[in-house]
Amino acid sequence: MRFRVVYPLIDDWLGFNMSKSGILIAVEGMDGSGKSTQAKLLYHWLRAKGLPVYHTEWNSSKIVKAATKLGKQNKRLLPMTFHLIHAADFADRWAKQIEPVLKIGGIVICDRYKYTAMARDGSRDVSLETIEQTYSFAREPDLTIYFDVPGDIGYERITKGRPSLKYYEAGMDMGWSDDPFESYRIFQSKVSDIYSKLVQEGRIIRLDATGSVPEVQKRMRTLFNENIDISEMTIIDPSDRLAQNLSQSEFDWLSYTEGGT
Predict the structure, then answer these.
(1) Where are the alpha helices (DSSP H) in the chain?
(2) Which of 9, 98, 117, 147 could disulfide-link 29, Cβ–Cβ 3.0 to 4.6 Å?
(3) How much is the CA Rg of the chain, to the nearest whole Å?
């Protein structure tokens, strides 16, 4: 199955004409690796430099959210079905969030990219060739950072204080074990093996994700600087940066009409 993406033509961002190539950064990692926290910190670090940067996470889009929820409730999602639903979800994210920013020369930081599909769907026995073909519309990132933590640390972070795991989260659909926590261990082990192979192939770069948040962030910034050149990017004027910050504020100023409380 192939996806063709259609996006609106955007000529500039915040009034600036920039390079049309953009910079794509992907962060990958096992559950509990701390990658999401680190991706957001990198985003704010780059924003503080005045760079045009956008952060996106792999959340279910409105297009597939209802279908995914129904399928999970009825436990009717086969591995290939799961694969195609996630691909449709990602295609919507690509078209609406990722590609438009890249097209105008911005930086996009993706919390999970197509390598997540390779790891998770590959663990469910979907062939790598199939996954590559399905996601062929998405370009290779300029840098993909794999947050590597020992399996027992990631497992403890995810399962600590949780009385149960979700059916598909634990890989119960594959019949590896009747115990959700044991099934989850098996699933995560398979995911880890695929990520390790991607590291060996040079498609993703391993980052030691153990240690404190500042320590890991320092390593991440070093890795970014070693692999990404931002010297030619246009810096956003401080006044435009302020306007962007206000536009992204969760505070609804319009709800406070004149004379209101």
Answers:
(1) 35-48, 62-74, 79-93, 99-103, 114-123, 128-134, 151-159, 180-200, 213-227, 238-247
(2) 147
(3) 20
pTM for this predicted structure: 0.80
Q: What distance separates the 2 farthest-apart alpha carbons in the chain? A: 64
Per the CB < 8 A criterion, the answer to whether 29 and 205 are in contact is no
* Domains of the chain, each with CATH number or no CATH: 23-228 (3.40.50.300)
Q: Specify the 3-state DSSP secondary structure of 13.
A: strand
Q: Tell me the per-residue pLDDT of 191-214, one tens digit each, with 9 for 90 and over.
A: 999 999 999 999 999 999 999 999
> CA-to-CA distance for 223 and 42, rounded, in angstroms?
11
Q: How far apart are the first and last CA of the chain?
A: 54
Residues 110/132/205/234 CA torsion (nearest 10 deg): -40
Q: How many CB atoms lie within 10 A of CB 93?
A: 22
